[in-house]
Amino acid sequence: MNLDGILGALAEAAAQGRVLGLDAATDRAEAVLESAERRQGFLGQTYVLALLGGTGVGKSSLLNTLAGEPVSPTSVIRPTTDRPLAWVASSRRDEIEPLLEWLGVREVRTHADTGLESVAILDMPDFDSVAVEHRRTVDRLLPKLDAVLWVLDPEKYDDERLHSYLRELGTRTGRLRFALNKVDRLQPAEEDAVVDDLVRRLTDDGIASAIIYPVSAATGAGTSALRESLEAEADAKELVMAKLANDALASLDRIAEEAGVAHGYRPLIESEERQEHVARSVEAALDIVDPSGVGRQLRTSLLSKASIRAGSIFSRLVWLIRFLTGHRRRHADPLRYLLTWRNRGAVGRVVNPMRKALLDAIRALPPPARAAIGAGSGGEGLESDIEEALDRAADRSAETISDRPSWVWSSLAVFQAIATGGFIFAIAWYVTLLLGPGDLAVGTIDVPYLGPVPLPLALLTLSLLASLVVAGLARLHASWRGAREARRLRARIRETVTDAVERAGFERLDQVEEARRSLARLREEAAAR
């Protein structure tokens, strides 16, 4: 795992450490990440240096001199370099390739110079080029570079465009180096004067203690000192990167240790034990919610509604009498019974198994991480969470209650109306016989074993029997439907209550476990670097 990967793992570990409340270890990890951010530049082992400067100052010539061979083209036509070019050791090509792709550097020249193996030099477009896109390229690449070597010459070192741009760089000036090229054209006294004036101008730009290399790309003067400096800075970067990597790994190890996963992840509560605690809490919750009672209420409600729709003549007479006397019958209400579950008991016996499980989990954690779930194990917070969860479970279950009248009852109600009509007609016939003349003729029908039976009595009897049969069929269907819906309702209530209780009781524990799993994975990946 390279430094980028290690720092990425540490950033993720720090986020998980915050979840676990490991503030001290996380603060140290964030300090390491802040150091890496301040380091800026490319976080690989290769030291990335860009050559920047104005038109004609000799950037490409200086690179060719450092390389000891033609690498970047030179020409009297300006600008010569219109695209960035990279000079990279062939052994480091694969390492730096992702950075070059990100920077958009497509021209790459490789070398086998062991002295500069850890250095990658980018020859950039001219800073003061007439092509506007060259300035934009410089602006885009600068934040990702390890250092910038501004190549100047005795004629352009005082260019106000350069110094105006340098004053805008702010905190990035610490990564600037300066090469005063073409010193072979100056006398020693003139060279000292130009260097002193350049130091003054850079100090005015906000760059104190500027590092300046007087060089000549044409004669090679001063280039050996520049090479030695690049080699030393490359070595220093490797030391910085190694220290950052070690600090990052140590910080990650510390977070993993305080989370109890330094040697791999192991759940705080084994799955079987957890399910036992959940089962006890769920059974206690179901005793209070009482899905069987809700089912009985549902069956009774359906039977009552079936009686109203397709009840017998007698049940309708009873309903009429109650209505006229003001004694309304109170029907079963499964929805109300379900939503008033609080009236049937307290949630203390639901909470106790969950609390015990959480206390066991706390004891299994190292002391620094115990506060992460400690608050969730105690009294009122857990009880209120369970109560709210059961309320939500009751609401979701209530949405599935179906005690609407059936089309079967509506169909049977038609036959019930016919039977009732026959009964009323038979009664009216008897009243007519009682109040009318005594010589009214009444037809009869022969009934086995009974002999002749008056037609009004036969009609009355058949109407009552038909009414009872229709009502019986309606109740039979309502009973069957009630049993079916009650089974489904009980299963839904059990499912929603189980889910609600487990979520409410173990939500915080699950967050802690997920953070610990992530830390164990990150630690394992870092250990395999």
State the gist of this model.
Helices cover 62% and strands 8% of the residues. The protein has 529 residues and is of the alpha/beta class.
Describe this entry's structure for a reader.
The protein is α/β, with parallel strands linked by helices. Helices cover 62% and strands 8% of the residues. The protein has 17 helices and nine strands. The strands form two sheets. The protein has a seven-stranded mixed beta sheet, sandwiched between helices. The protein has a two-stranded antiparallel sheet with strand order 8-9. The protein starts with a helix and ends with a helix. The relative contact order is 0.11.
Biggest pleated-sheet summary:
7 strands, mixed
The percent range for helix content is 55-70%
Low-confidence stretches: 75-80
Described by its quaternary structure, the protein is single chain
Average pLDDT number: 83
Q: Which structural class best describes the helix and strand composition?
A: alpha/beta
H/E element string? HHEHEHEEHEHEHEHHHHHHHHHEEH
> Strand share of the residues?
5-15%
Could you say which overall geometry the principal axes of the C-alpha atoms support? Answer: elongated
Radius of gyration: 46 Å
Q: Describe the strand arrangement of the main beta sheet, using strand numbers.
A: 3-2-4-1-5-6-7
Number of strands: 9
What is the count of helical runs?
17
The total domain count is: 2
Distance between the termini: 4 Å
